[in-house]
Amino acid sequence: MVRDEGLTLHEAAADLGVHYMTAYRYVRLGQLDAVKRAGTWRVSRSELERFRAAPAEEPSESTGRGRVDWSERMHSRLVAGDIGGAWSVVESALAAGSTPARVYTEVISPALVTIGDRWAQGELDISVEHRATGIVQRIIGRLGPQFVRRGRSRGSVVIGSPSGERHGLVVSMLSDLVRAAGWEVSDIGADSPASSFISAMRETGSVAVVVSVTHADSLPSCRDTVLAIRGAEPDIPVIVGGRGITSRAVAADVGADHHAAGLDDLLELLGEVAASTRSA
Ligand code: B12
């Protein structure tokens, strides 16, 4: 079988009848899928046909042809290792009326889930996932400050993942989302020993601890962490959540006080904790 080397971006632009810079913008916005080979962007013939059938849309969230799929665009830029393009997708989504929170939950997270699924099916090499992780870390670094809310804090919470749990992107995103709701967050990141949870709680006078578990193999370590926190600070509620905590029963099994099934659930629980702290 002859490998489809595709066209250079110059050839693709000529084929589409647009200026090179226009074609380049399509790529950077994730509208036209291209990969870089030996320093040159290349577009496959099948992608060119797909694009021709449904050309680029203006950067508004909703158009006559339906919603722009920002997460698909992000997925394409992450897989291509295109850091500038990935940031352009963020900027375009924000310009089209999205919020930083929705960029996390509706653009970046689904793109990562697709990358994970494609990796699990053997379609993507692990290096692609690692490279995507690096890009997302930088995006979170740039977006993060936008989540800090001015005014009186609702209280402090510690958020982290137990020893052995390396899925830290989710901890960073969750921390920002909780910050946006007015909480002071001590984000101790992934793979944190129980002693770090305890020191951070004590140092910040936290009213709750949130433990995020993504991989089921981290459940024993989560249980050890919860037990250690409970031993050190019996009155501080421990909330667990994440992809690895699949039910209330699993949360109870690791000894947690609460299971947060999602962000809204977590914010509601934290609100209850704040109210009970005030009335105590
Ligand atoms: C990036 C990634 C990695 C990176 C992590 C880098 C980093 N710094 O985070 C690296 C390469 C280190 C990695 C390693 C591994 N990974 Co990995 N990884 C992923 C990937 C692609 C993205 C993770 C992510 O950030 N997702 C985005 C987040 C935001 O989505 P989310 O997890 O659904 O989180 C949402 C909610 O759960 C919620 N949430 C999360 N925590 C909490 C907590 C509370 C309290 C609340 C309320 C909500 C909440 O917030 C999010 C809102 O959208 C996922 C794919 C996927 N489906 O997520 C695989 C995935 C999680 N990994 C997987 C696997 C198998 C592994 C490895 C075992 C691979 C290996 N053989 O080494 C190791 C395990 C490492 C370890 N010990 O922890 C599997 C897990 C399968 C399973 N059965 O649990 C997945 C699902 C891939 C797949 N489809 O198979 N991984």
Characterise this structure.
By secondary structure, the protein is of the alpha/beta class. The chain has three domains: 55 residues, Multidrug-efflux Transporter Regulator, Chain: A, Domain 2; 80 residues, Orthogonal Bundle (Methyltransferase, Methionine Synthase (B12-binding Domains), Chain A, domain 1), CATH 1.10.1240; 132 residues, Rossmann fold, CATH 3.40.50. The chain has twelve helices and ten strands. Helix 6 packs antiparallel against helix 7 and helix 9 crosses helix 10. The longest helix is centred in the middle third of the chain and has 21 residues. The protein is elongated, with a radius of gyration of 22 Å. The relative contact order is 0.08. The site of cobalamin (B12) has 33 residues, from helix 6, helix 7, helix 8, strand 8 and strand 9.
Radius of gyration of CA atoms, rounded to a whole number? 22 Å
> What structural category do the secondary elements indicate?
alpha/beta
Strand runs, count: 10
Cα end-to-end separation: 73 Å
Can you count the helices?
12
Characterize the biggest β-sheet. Answer: 5 strands, parallel
Q: Helicity level, as a percent range?
A: 40-55%
Low-confidence stretches are 59-66
What overall form do the CA principal axes indicate?
elongated
CATH topology of the largest domain: Rossmann fold
What is the name of the CATH superfamily of the largest domain? Answer: Cobalamin-binding domain
The hetero molecules present are: cobalamin
CATH class of the largest domain: Alpha Beta
Total discrete domains = 3
Report strand order across the widest sheet.
7-6-8-9-10
Average pLDDT, rounded to a whole number, is: 89
How are helices and strands ordered from N to C?
A: EHHEEHEEHHHHEHEHEHEHEH
CATH architecture of the largest domain: 3-Layer(aba) Sandwich
The percentage of residues in β strands lies in: 5-15%
